[in-house]
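Example 3.2
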Amino acid sequence: MEPIAKLFAGTATTSLAEAIAAEYGQGLGKVAMQPFSDGEYVLWFDESVRGRRVFLIQSTMPSAENLFELLQMIDAAKRASARHITAVIPYYGYARQDRKDKPRVPITSKLVAKLLEAAGATRVMTMDLHADQIQGFFEVPVDHLFSSSIFVPDIESLQLENLTIASPDVGGSKRASAYGNQLGADVVICYKQRKKANVVDKMTVIGDVKDRNIILLDDMVDTAGTLTKAADMLIEEGAKSVRAYCTHGVLSGNAIERIEASALDELVITDTIPLKRNSSKIRTLSVAPIFASVMRKVQSNESISDHFLF
């Protein structure tokens, strides 16, 4: 019989880890941490993991301490003779640095992959990577889950007439098309031009949005500059309403204020990253049931293909 798996949480996403553990059907294991006066810390498992499969749950958004804490947990599990070590990373930080888009820059998302493997991770579980090809940076199995399995039913529950799916940029057209096919909706593309990172210079829409209820889709919302500019532009072009569904709510800087001042009816995100503060325009859906279900199937060596909606 397969030994019972153990679940442990990092400090960055404790609430989500607790929700995953509750859905999984067992409590979180005990992790102890001892800080030094200079800010360095040491952590350890306060219970045996020998011969067990362990799931280490931690999103790796900045600061880099979150990633480093996960690496320490992986190393500790390896040295404590855990049999399988699965890094459960709901939000895979540094995923936007997936290629050399100009001279003399790192490919940090691959660096992170190599760090996780070097630390001892034997499997990685994550959601909505910024670029699908990041899976190829790993030499261990990667379970790449999609928020579509919770977003599509939620969109359907709105029962919107004249529904149109929109991508805020050309890069997201594949995602928008998949949702459009699933929901039987038209698809439009917002074409943007940037002069520098996080700043949109110009934006136009490709397609008809007049009198349509628009759903904007993206894998993440950071400064919300692109999203709010797209929403405002779509309303100016005659859209009836605009909502946005984004998996990872990075929401840095004045993002929440931008959303509240924009034409967006609402922004729907998941809890892969803790929400910095509540807003009447932001609604959060939990990914805990998805991760818990896949973790159970991984533990019992069952297929997880039914979790890939498209």
